[in-house]
């Protein structure tokens, strides 16, 4: 018999303030819900909890789509699910791409065997409607246009209206990644005409990572049911999963009960606050934080006018070591922020003010900590100027 | 704006005793661990927790395989992962199949594009080595033999030694499903020569559903790295996932932090008890429960000599309505047991005595409740005879 290598101690992590690209902090009500004793996955009481969760997800997605449910995997599983259920060998898709997560969409789309036309934009910039139009000129029979609404790697929020219209004019279905916007910025599936969308729970929904809310309208669902080949992944096959989450309760896999408990509670908190109030809160705190950073001499990375309210990206000043600032924040303040991914690694910071973490308290603390970290690096800046600039934003908003 | 349909009340499920096919009950220490505030998924402290979890999984799997980790999905994701990483178009696989979960393996294996040879046994019976030998005669170049060690749909525990030898003699890699045995019955990957295995957390590990422990040895890993085509599912692609769980910490997806907390705690409890003591406990309680059932006039469904210690299957007497007994147990005793799946639906019950639920207390309570339910159905039986028979088993074991 092999024995355990050592005595593993009690779980006692440091209490962090999670202001990175996700996971975000979680309300204690959600943690408590998660620790509720388990029901069976086919228990009538659990089925009611599933139904509540779907209802609440429809509210957060602003949709009446029947096929709205949380996939039993993290946000990336949502991306894989939507693309690999809509695409198949010989299908044609356009993927509009301006960051790591759009790039990932390209990878997934190609794995389905579909032909993929890529629209690429500069890192930190949006996709322009003309680029999408041009892609449809090249691939007029594309059945799917996929894009990222809130690009977590750059902090960009992509305008939706024009590119959806172009796709629909060409008869394509629109698939949208809203991992970093759902629950923190307007996501209006039905009003915008989004045919399929996916998200994660660990960003603005403020629920631990582990589930991927998805929603498909009847057009996308019809596309799924008209497939010529089975979905390549059994685990992510929506034709079976809709029978488990639907009226039939056909056994597919054992739902992650505790995660569903957590999601229901997180969504209940969103419903109590109200989506519009929640969006406004994210917007205000992002504005205040950005104003504070600018007063400190930092420059936002994402294109002006298209910045996410949930994730603020900042260019790292040339004289500053990007990772040492993050280390300082983690060690001296127990604050996590994220660095850049891919081509902007080392060049930007990503500061998440998501869900229950988007508070005035966190904005002020993050500015204070960031100023201290920058000063420690020899980048002379003033915390008080930052706090003042942020306060101006709050005071104006109160008027 | 669409508004929430109603006011969703506080989460307050009935406290069940989960003696079905899974999820099983969870120790309060695990629930508490799960409600620990989150760390970021790349936090140095979380990385240590990941490493502990991998170490402890190696102990439970009885392996030194480097590639041992929990996939971010439920047990079925483990099945999909192992098969879709080992197989690809034009590969050849033999799947030995004697229940719903073996059937599922066939489905998944076919989706990879591999050619699949099926070995089928009667429901409730094991696969005989001769059947596997015959399959290799038909498909001598099969690269993979996949089978289920503990078939959750029938209650059978498959002997491993002979069929592994046959597969290895033919140069094939062996993939084993141990969803319902890991942590409750001997699973000795290295000693048995199993090349790839997967399990779930929600059975004998007594952790909520949501993760799928997997383990691949170097032979299986080499097969993975020698693939000609990419793994069809991006989310389940082990070539990337091993870089996240490995030294490189290459970002793939956001790990389900809270579930990893829960798994680490559940594994810690297993290490404290010791695997051998845990296996003996499962064995004893299963024997006592089965003796009690037989004294009540019920017949075990699974083939004698090959019964799982974690999941006991019982044939439903002809005069009894299968689902009404389950309803009675749920409503009068808050005990969940499971019915049959597939061709044995309505014909068997499945009673799980798994993980922390495998106790003398639960055995005695389940026998009492079952006797009451049967009597309510007009099937005259005696609880006291059942309890006596179980007690004899316990008393003998103490000798």
Give a structural overview.
The structure is a homodimer of 399-residue chains. Chain A has helices at residues 28-34, 44-61, 75-86, 100-111, 129-138, 161-169, 189-192, 218-225, 238-245, 257-273, 275-295, 322-333, 360-376, 383-398; strands at residues 17-18, 67-71, 92-97, 115-120, 144-148, 150-151, 156-157, 173-177, 196-198, 212-216, 299-300, 311-315, 335-336, 338-339, 348-352. By secondary structure, chain A is of the alpha/beta class. Chain A has 2 domains: 28-271, Type I PLP-dependent aspartate aminotransferase-like (Major domain) (Aspartate Aminotransferase, domain 2); 274-398, Aspartate Aminotransferase, domain 1 (Alpha-Beta Complex), CATH 3.90.1150. Chain A has a 7-stranded mixed β-sheet with strand order 2-10-9-8-5-3-4, with helices on both faces. A 4-stranded antiparallel β-sheet of chain A has the order 11-12-15-14, with helices on one face. In chain A, strand 6 (150-151) and strand 7 (156-157) form a beta hairpin. In chain A, helix 3 (75-86) packs across helix 4, helix 11 packs parallel to helix 13 and helix 12 packs across helix 13 (360-376). Chain A is globular. The mean pLDDT of chain A is 97.
């Amino acid at each position: 018999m092999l024995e355990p290598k050592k005595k593993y101690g009690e779980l006692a992590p440091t209490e962090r303030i999670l202001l990175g690209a996700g996971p975000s902090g979680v309300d204690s009500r959600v943690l408590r819900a998660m620790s509720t004793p388990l029901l069976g996955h086919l228990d009538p009481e659990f089925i009611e909890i599933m139904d509540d969760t779907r209802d609440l997800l429809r509210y957060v997605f602003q949709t009446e789509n029947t096929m709205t449910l949380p996939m039993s995997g993290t946000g990336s599983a949502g991306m894989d699910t939507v693309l690999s259920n809509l695409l198949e060998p010989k299908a044609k898709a356009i993927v509009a791409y301006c960051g790591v997560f759009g790039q990932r969409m390209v990878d997934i789309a190609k794995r389905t065997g579909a032909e993929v036309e890529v629209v690429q934009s500069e890192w930190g910039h949006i996709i322009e409607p003309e680029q999408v139009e041009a892609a449809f000129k090249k691939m007029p029979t594309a059945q799917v246009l996929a894009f990222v609404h809130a690009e977590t790697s750059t902090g960009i929020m992509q305008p939706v209206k024009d590119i959806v219209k172009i796709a629909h004019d060409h008869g394509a279905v629109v698939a949208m990644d809203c991992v970093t916007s759902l629950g923190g910025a307007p996501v209006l599936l039905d009003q915008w005409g989004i045919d399929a969308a996916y998200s994660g729970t660990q960003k603005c929904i403020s629920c631990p990572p582990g589930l991927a809310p998805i929603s498909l309208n009847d057009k996308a669902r019809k596309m799924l049911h008209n497939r010529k080949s089975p979905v390549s992944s059994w685990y992510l096959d929506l034709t079976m999963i809709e029978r488990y989450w639907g009226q039939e309760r056909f056994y597919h896999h054992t739902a992650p009960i505790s995660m569903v408990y957590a999601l229901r509670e997180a969504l209940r908190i969103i419903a109590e606050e109200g989506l519009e109030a929640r969006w406004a809160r994210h917007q205000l705190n992002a504005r205040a934080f950005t104003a504070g950073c600018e007063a400190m001499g930092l420059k936002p990375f994402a294109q002006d006018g298209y910045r996410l309210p949930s994730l603020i990206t900042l260019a790292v000043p040339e004289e500053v070591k990007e990772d040492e600032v993050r280390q300082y924040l983690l060690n001296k303040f127990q604050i996590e922020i994220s660095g850049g991914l891919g081509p902007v690694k080392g060049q930007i910071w990503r500061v998440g003010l998501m869900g229950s973490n988007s508070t005035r308290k966190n904005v002020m603390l993050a500015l204070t900590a960031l100023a201290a970290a920058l000063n420690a690096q020899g980048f002379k800046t003033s915390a008080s100027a930052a706090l003042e600039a942020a306060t101006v934003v709050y005071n104006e908003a109160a008027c």
